[in-house]
Amino acid sequence: MTAAAAHAPSWYAASASEFAAQPRLQGDEQADVVVLGAGLTGLSTAIELAERGYKVIVLEAQRVGWGASGRSGGQLIFGYGCDISKIAELLGKEDARRLFDWSLEGVDLIAERIAKYGIECDLRRGHAHAAIKPRQVEELKAWQDELSGQYGYQGLQFWNQERLQQNLATERYRALLFDPRSGHLHPLDYTLGLARAALALGVRIYEGSAVTAVDPGAEVRFRTAEGSVRAGFGVLGGNAWLDALVPELERKIMPVGTYICATEVLGEQRARGLIANDMAVADTNFVLDYFRLSRDHRMLFGGRVSYSKLPPPGLGARMRQRMVDVFPQLGDVRLGYVWGGYVDITMNRAPHWGRLQPNLYYAQGFSGHGIAATGLAGRVIAEAIAGQAERLDLFARIPHRDFPGGKLMRTPALVLAMLWFRMKDHLP
Ligand SMILES: Cc1cc2nc3c(=O)[nH]c(=O)nc-3n(C[C@H](O)[C@H](O)[C@H](O)COP(=O)(O)OP(=O)(O)OC[C@H]3O[C@@H](n4cnc5c(N)ncnc54)[C@H](O)[C@@H]3O)c2cc1C
User: Measured between alpha carbons, how far is 322 from 172 in angstroms, rounded to an integer?
Assistant: First the structure.
């Protein structure tokens, strides 16, 4: 058995709190619920179940938070990976309204857990979607009208260029939609904090314990190289890393690489000069830029995508250029860290949650929008296991198509589709 991989060399890994290594699974164990993956989905599920008195074992191939959960942009945003109008198209307006409300519950759940379990992860409120083109300004206004009119979400503020420049030192954006309820956090510290909470609730977490087979049945059995866990229920939270272990799930998502850089320390004054109110920002392009400040006053700037498992050539220089395009005043700044990870996108960008068997559950397809939605996924799966499946059943009604072209042709087909969306980003 090989040792668990180290965390990606990110600013998060360099600045996260200490977390004691957890043992590998050796031998056969029994639990009420066995969970694959110690990311936000798996840990959220484990906490919700342990709070209800279930005996839970979590099996993690690498380390707690090693996947997307420990590497993300840390932007905590309401909604899902697709527009809510897409969900209305798929499920109808009434059910879309319920899903929208639950997404706000996902945002609030984070603050509740931080308070309940004393998690230190630099939560800050304030997030903005930014428009670059005149067309996007109109889209932001229409979105605000839709959310307040049809979904009852009144908190969004439309900021014109003059107003936004009081907080954001860039000429790039024409308007922002500011949400005081969303925000940002240190994603690895939050994930590790959830793991500590789970351990305190009696959950057992095994690291370096990749699940190599999932045996369905009246009792599910998750096997690893050195042991197995039998349980009444199984939960799959492996996200983009699940690969061929569960082909029915693999066909529904495409792992897409996305990247982040962290500058050297800028100093408080210079950092605040860039984002005075410390909000997180994401533009509304399909291949978007997203950024925020770190607690030690660096710029954390994310963007770019790739469809290969190899890091794109010249990644650091390209990330830096994207950042300087937004903040030319950072032209003299060096980068301290550059890293990436995979997001699990579905064809329609809507979440893909449900059951493969009556006692085998999954949640994936967060489509780059999982910080808040993963918490909700864990809660609705736990509710279903505890006998209240109404909410999970509604998510499970969202139709999903396989990526076309099978395993080998999936990537070229997706690249073509993405090229079209990228071209759209360049239209006025
Ligand atoms: C670079 C980047 C930036 C992002 N930025 C944002 C953002 O700003 N805002 C936002 O809302 N979302 C963002 N996301 C998306 C968000 O991070 C994810 O949706 C979320 O973390 C998914 O959590 P998860 O637990 O489902 O998956 P993961 O965190 O990937 O966890 C899955 C875990 O399962 C384990 N695993 C897989 N297979 C096995 C196996 N066979 N056996 C045992 N363990 C296994 C993996 O090792 C991994 O630890 C970003 C993602 C990336 C990569």
Answer: 12
